[in-house]
Amino acid sequence: MNEYFNKMSPHPQSMHVDVPRVLVWPNQAIFKHGILAGFPASFGTAENLSKFLLYCRTKGKNGWPSVCYAIWASYAQRYFNMDNELASLFFESCRHICMDIRDTSQWDEKYMTTLSEDTKSRMRDKVSVNTIHLALYLYSQNVTLMQTQKFSLRSEEFPTDRKAKKKSIDVRFIETFLSDIMKILSDPESKGLSLDKQPITLSSVTSLGIMFTVYTDNSIRPLHEVLQQQNHAAMCSFNKLTQSFNTQQVRTWLLDHMHANPFTSKRCLMHGKTVYQKPNRRNRRPSDHSLENGGSSPSTMTRCRITTNDHETPAEHRLVAMQYVSRQITVLGSETLLNHRVHVTHCNDASIYLLSSMRDTSVKQCARSTVATGPIAGTLYLTGCVNMRIISIARRIVLRNCHSCKLYLVTPTQPLLLAGCNDITLAPYNTFYRGLAGHLSHSNFSVAKNLWDKPSSPMCLDGDTGKVYQRLPPEQFHLFSIPFSTEGTTTGLVSQLPPDYEKQTLKSRDRVTAWYDKVQKCDLSEAQTSQLAATLQGRFHDWLETSGHQKELDGLIRLRDKL
To answer: Where are the beta strands (DSSP E) in 366-487?
Structure first.
């Protein structure tokens, strides 16, 4: 692993430089997939969120240490001027980002088996999240303000030196506003004290860990566990009797160990192990040396390439990255994708099959392609995509700046359509592969609750160019066949179709069956049968050409020949 960090160093030739034993960087689950850009964040000041925490403490077990939705919704509407949709959006996003999927899946199954609407309403009001997690999640929304550098939550100016500008926005945000974050967590009884005199409890540090990823000893560890280790506990003045740290020293420790995320897709593409790459015929073939050392010349960065970093990273940050997949079919299975994060970027006119259980999947700047996935335990994040067909089972689905995309989904949360989305078509999940049930079980994913047709789009407005989203008309719905065989026992859809879509599916099936029966009853001669077959084959080839599916079929044939 040390070699990996030496590669990523600004001066890789300086091999004598020691790699820090502990690295800390902002949690990407929040800062990459949890930021709802475009929302007014004026409510997310340290002062307002401190008041929110103080209010929750007065509500007993319904407000502390976890706050139920009823308490949050009431406070958000009264003091943050949020409507019900926005309050629910922040609450559910925090819940699914910060909580284990097993807990949310169990609740979803219980909710869907409840018949009474009154009981369901009471269940929704009682569902809860960690109160500090929610406050920190709300404060993290201010990271979008770093992009404009026109707003400051404190009197200090944004960093303007060159070194600071090279840092990622999330790191700059943490370094700039960490003092305010620590103030949010401070005990109400010590509010008047300066940071160097304020204690911070172990439970608060445990909750603070949701904001950070801590890497030490070749593994990812919880923040509170690392700070209790002997050498770090002394730096942060940990008191075993009071189970508390010194606030200022914890802040200093975090800043001293702050580092850019070393497991990004860009670094995976440059330094990762090659799964597949297609030679670029228009450029010279790069030497093995340039690939080995992460060369970034056009000949290495514009070719179709799929890489992974699983040979040198902890399990939580294993990543598969693919870019520039164009006019071809790509299929990856469990041997490559299981429990990995997947990043797909700049792929055009392609068919991509990701047949495995994955942590998160990001699809960025892709066009005119099909992406079919297995269950995603975290977030499916689409940004800058045009004319895409997405077939996926995902815990959360977020779209930003996407146009003319069709999504066939199973998701227990509302699909989130952020700013810039237009002409999004939604439909129920319409495919399966033999290993799907096993992957659902592996990821503890429940398909009982499916909100595919209940998107949230508070920042999108219907305009002259059309509606933000619409349901796919049932008469246009068809099952999608995955043309690959995998190990498993799944032989049909894992989620029940809505009645109108189920009716259309049966109708299409009956139409085909009736046509076959009609042909058999015609009692055609051998010559007539041959003539009919030739006519049908000719019409079918014409349809393949006009619809564009001929290229896809040719790609499947080439892929079969390689296998």
So the answer is: 370-383, 389-400, 403-410, 416-417, 422-428, 469-471
Spatial distance between the Cα atoms of 304 and 306, rounded to a whole number of angstroms: 7
Q: What is the mean pLDDT of residues 56-67?
A: 94
Q: Please give the average per-residue pLDDT across 257-278, as a whole number.
A: 88
Torsions phi, psi for 166 (to 5 deg): -75, -20
In three-state secondary structure terms, 162 is: helix
- Who contacts 421 (Cβ-Cβ below 8 Å, separation ≥6)? 399, 400, 401, 402, 403, 457, 460, 468, 469
Report which residue type is found at 127. V
- Report yes or no: 255 and 181 within 8 Å, Cβ to Cβ: no
Both tokens of 483, joined, read 């043309």
Residue type, 103: D
Highest-confidence segment of 102-111, 298-307, 352-361, 522-531: 352-361
Helix (H/G/I), strand (E/B), else coil: 515? helix
| Chain segment 331-359, per-residue pLDDT in tens | 999 999 999 999 999 999 999 999 999 99
- Tokens standing for 458? 């508070």
More confident residue, 461 or 285: 461
Mean pLDDT of the chain: 83
> Structure tokens of 333?
């299975």
CB atoms within 10 A of CB 350: 23
Q: Which pair of tokens denotes residue 198? A: 């304020």
Using pLDDT thresholds of 50, 70 and 90, give the confidence band for residue 173. Answer: very high
Q: How many CB atoms lie within 10 A of CB 538?
A: 10
Note whether 405 and 424 are within 8 A (CB): yes
CB 408 within 8 A of CB 480: yes
pLDDT at residue 548, rounded to an integer:
66
Tell me if residue 400 falls in helix, strand or coil: strand
**Least-confidence region, from 5-14, 90-99, 548-557:** 5-14
Cα of 317 vs its chain's centroid, Å: 13
Between CA 240 and CA 230 the distance in angstroms is 12
Exposed, middle or buried: residue 116 (CB in 10 Å: 0-12, 13-18, 19+)? Answer: exposed
Q: Going by C-beta distance under 8 Å and a sequence separation of 6 or more, which residues neighbour residue 60?
A: none
Q: What is the pTM of this model?
A: 0.83
Residue 321 CB contacts under 8 Å (≥ 6 apart), including other chains = 265, 268, 269, 272, 306, 307, 308, 342, 343, 345
pLDDT at 529: 79
Q: How far apart are CA 96 and CA 412, in angstroms?
A: 10
